[in-house]
Specification:
Helices cover 37% and strands 18% of the residues. It is α+β, with helices and mostly antiparallel strands.
Length: 630
C-alpha cells in the first residue's frame, strides 16, 4: 500500500471540495447573520445613524394662540426670536476648542456656560450626540448677524428661528393676561404625559395660565438636511433628500382667544385710576362678562415672560407694593359702607324690616357697654331704609344687622357672591370673608359676641371682600337678583377665524331676597348719586343720558380714636370704595373701585367710576334717550 495517495485520488479531492463548500457555507451564513443584524434586528438604529449624519430632526414647538379684546384688538402676540444650539456630533474633537473659544468671544459665555458645553461634548455618546443642545435663547440681532458671518468656523453650531410671547400694549391688562415662564420641575412632574419638556414655556398667571391647554397647541417635528459641519444645505438639495422620506407630524398652533375685555375701557380705567394701589373691575350685569380689570401697581409682562432676569424678578417680588398680585381677585378689603345694601336685604327679608320702618339716628348707639357711633356726629334723625342707604346712616344699619341676625346677613351676602371664591381664577382667587356665628365660634378665642354683628353690619369688623366680589354683588342687585359667574373669554377661534367654542353666561344662583326687597335696595342706591344728601350726589355725571346707582364706602384700616382728623401715614389711612351701575333702571355696566389709603369713597373712588360709566355709555355702548335720561 502506498504511503501517500496520488494527486488524482478521488477521495482526497472530495474531502477538499467538502471543506471548501463548508468554508463558503460558513462565510455565507455569517454574512446572512450579519445582514440580519444590520438590516432587520438593528435596522432602525443603523438607519437612524445614517440619517443623523446629514438629517437633523428637531422638535417643533407649536405657535401659541393669540389673544384679542372683544373688538379684535391684538393684546398678546408671538414675535420672532433666535436661539443658539450646539450638536456634538457635527463638531470634530480637534475643532471643539476653537469653536468654544470663538463662541465665548462672540457671546461672552460665562465660565459656567463653557464648562457645561465642554461636559456635554465629552460625555454624550451614540445617538445622543446628534441631539441639539440649547446654548442661548432669544439672541440679540447683532449676535445673530455675527454668528452667521462666522458659521463656517463654528462646527456644530446652529441658530434656530423660534417665537417668543409679546405683549404689545405693555402694562395694559397685565394681570388679566398674565405671562408665560419656563416650566419648573414640579410642573413637569405634574404634567407628565402631556408632552412637556424641560425648557418649554407654560402659562404662569392670568389668561395664559387659565387657558394653557387651549393656547398651547400641539408640538410636532421638522427635518433639516445639513452638511458635514452641521450647517443647513440649500433648499433645493434638502427637498431632493427629503422627498422619499415619510412626512413627520407638523406642529399645530393653539387656539386664539377673544376676551370680553374692551381695550378702550381698559385703557381709560388704567389711565384714570387715581391712586398708588388698588383695583378696578367693570362687568356686564346682564351676563357676568368682565369688561375691564385693573390692578395697581402693575408690571410689564414683556419683562417677566419667558426666561426672566433674576435681579429683575427679585426686585418685583420683593416690592412692598406687590405689583405682581392681581388686587381685583387676590386681595380682600373691608368693604365699609358698600356692604350696607346686603344688610338691608337681610333685614327686609328676615328681620321684619319694611320699606316704611323708621329708626332714629342720634349719632350714636349704646350697646353692650360700648358706644357705636355714626359717621355723622349729629345723626340722621328718623330714617327708613331707602334714605338710610342714600345717606349711609351707620346707626340704622347697626339696628338692621341686629334685626336680621349675623347668620342671615352672611347668608344674603354669600348669595350675592361675597365672601366666597367666584370661580374666576381657581387656585389664585382669595375667598374673602363674611363671617357668621359659627365662624366666630370656630376661629376666635371669645367665640361669638353680639357686638360683632354691629361692626360687621357696616362693613368693618371681620368682613373682607375682593373688588370682583363687590362688582358681582352689585350686579346681582342691579339685574334684579341673578348672580352670574364672572367670565372673561367670549370664544375660542381657530387660526382661520372660525369659532371653536363660544362661551355663554352662567348663572351661579339667585339672591336670597324677594324681587320686591331687591327693588327697595335699588331705589336707595339710586338716591346716592341723584338726591341731595346722597353721599355721591356732588360727583354725579351731569348732562348725560342716564342715572347712576351705587354706594360709597370708607373702610378703616386702623381704629383712629384720638388721631381722628390728623394726617396719618399712608399705610394707616382709610381705603376708598365706590361701587355702582348704570343706567340705574336698565343696567349695562357695573363698576367697583377700591383705592387703597385714599380716604373717603366720594373723593377717592367715585369720580373715576363716574368717568368710566360715562365713557362706556357714551362711547362704547351708546344709549338712546329714554324716560330715565331726561
Amino acid at each position: 500500500m502506498p504511503l501517500f495517495s496520488t494527486p488524482n485520488d478521488p477521495a482526497r479531492f472530495r474531502l477538499r471540495f467538502l471543506i471548501l463548500l463548508a468554508v463558503i457555507a460558513i462565510g455565507f451564513i455569517s454574512l446572512m447573520l450579519r445582514l440580519y443584524q444590520v438590516q432587520i434586528r438593528h435596522g432602525a438604529e443603523y438607519l437612524a445613524l445614517s440619517h443623523s449624519n446629514f438629517i437633523s430632526v428637531r422638535r417643533e414647538v407649536a405657535l401659541r394662540g393669540l389673544i384679542f379684546d372683544r373688538q379684535g384688538k391684538l393684546l398678546v402676540d408671538n414675535r420672532p426670536s433666535f436661539d443658539l444650539y450646539f450638536t456634538p456630533a457635527f463638531c470634530r474633537r480637534e475643532g471643539f476648542s476653537n469653536t468654544l473659544h470663538r463662541l465665548s468671544e462672540l457671546l461672552g459665555l460665562s465660565q459656567q456656560e463653557q464648562s457645561r458645553l465642554r461636559k456635554i461634548f465629552q460625555d454624550t455618546r451614540k445617538l445622543d450626540r446628534f441631539l441639539p443642545v440649547a446654548v442661548r435663547y432669544d439672541l440679540p440681532w447683532k449676535d445673530v448677524v455675527n454668528l452667521a458671518e462666522m458659521r463656517d468656523l463654528l462646527e456644530g453650531v446652529e441658530v434656530w428661528p423660534e417665537t417668543r410671547r409679546s405683549y404689545p400694549a405693555g402694562e395694559l391688562a397685565a394681570h388679566v393676561l398674565g405671562y408665560v415662564a419656563e416650566i419648573n420641575p414640579r410642573e413637569l412632574a405634574e404634567r407628565s404625559g402631556e408632552g412637556y419638556q424641560q425648557g418649554d414655556m407654560i402659562g404662569r398667571t392670568g389668561i395664559e395660565r387659565l387657558f394653557e391647554r387651549e393656547l398651547r397647541g400641539k408640538n410636532g417635528q421638522r427635518r433639516q438636511v445639513v452638511d458635514a459641519r452641521g450647517q443647513p444645505v440649500p433648499a433645493w438639495e434638502a427637498k431632493l433628500v427629503l422627498s422619499d422620506m415619510p412626512p413627520v407630524e407638523a406642529a399645530r398652533p393653539g387656539a386664539n382667544l377673544v376676551l370680553s375685555i374692551d381695550a378702550r375701557l381698559q385703557e381709560v380705567a388704567e389711565a384714570r385710576f387715581p391712586g398708588r394701589a388698588g383695583a378696578v373691575v367693570a362687568l356686564d350685569p346682564r351676563t357676568g362678562f368682565v369688561l375691564a380689570m385693573v390692578s395697581r401697581p402693575a408690571y410689564d409682562p414683556n419683562l417677566v415672560s419667558g426666561r426672566v432676569d433674576h435681579r429683575l424678578w427679585r426686585e418685583l417680588s420683593q416690592d412692598p407694593d406687590r405689583p405682581l398680585i392681581n388686587r381685583a381677585i387676590q386681595e380682600h378689603y373691608p368693604p365699609g359702607s358698600t356692604f350696607k345694601p346686603f344688610v338691608a336685604l337681610a333685614a327686609l327679608e328676615y328681620g321684619g324690616l319694611t320699606p316704611e320702618t323708621r329708626q332714629l339716628c342720634t349719632g350714636a348707639l349704646p350697646f353692650g357697654g360700648h358706644v357705636f357711633r355714626c359717621w355723622r356726629a349729629g345723626g340722621h334723625g328718623n330714617v327708613a331704609v331707602r334714605e338710610a342707604l342714600t345717606r349711609s346712616c351707620d346707626v340704622f344699619f347697626y339696628r338692621a344687622g341686629l334685626r336680621a341676625t349675623l347668620d342671615r346677613v352672611a347668608e344674603v351676602a354669600h348669595s350675592c357672591g361675597l365672601g366666597r371664591p367666584s370661580g374666576f381664577d381657581p387656585g389664585f382667587e382669595v375667598s374673602g370673608l363674611v363671617p357668621d356665628t359659627a365662624w366666630y365660634r370656630n376661629n376666635t378665642q371669645t367665640g361669638f359676641l353680639p357686638g360683632f354683628t354691629l361692626s360687621d353690619s357696616i362693613g368693618q369688623g371681620d368682613v373682607a371682600v375682593t373688588p370682583l366680589q363687590q362688582a358681582l354683588g352689585y350686579a346681582s342687585i342691579a339685574n334684579g337678583g341673578t348672580l352670574y359667574r364672572p367670565q372673561i373669554v367670549l370664544r375660542l377661534e381657530a387660526t382661520d377665524g372660525t369659532t371653536i367654542q363660544e362661551f355663554s353666561p352662567e348663572v351661579l344662583g339667585r339672591v336670597a331676597a324677594s324681587p320686591e326687597n331687591v327693588r327697595v335696595v335699588q331705589e336707595g342706591l339710586i338716591g346716592v348719586a341723584n338726591e341731595p344728601g346722597g353721599t355721591a350726589y356732588w360727583v354725579r355725571p351731569r348732562g348725560v343720558a342716564f342715572k347712576v346707582a351705587g354706594k360709597t364706602g370708607t373702610s378703616q384700616v386702623v381704629r383712629q380714636g384720638a388721631d381722628r382728623g390728623r394726617e396719618l401715614p399712608y399705610n394707616l389711612r382709610d381705603h376708598a370704595w365706590f361701587v355702582a351701575w348704570a343706567p340705574a333702571e336698565s343696567p349695562r355696566i357695573a363698576v367697583a373701585v377700591v383705592n387703597e389709603h385714599a380716604g373717603h369713597g366720594s373723593t377717592g373712588a367715585a369720580p373715576v367710576v363716574m368717568e368710566l360709566l360715562t365713557y362706556y355709555l357714551e362711547r362704547i355702548e351708546p344709549l338712546a334717550d329714554g324716560p330715565e335720561d331726561r
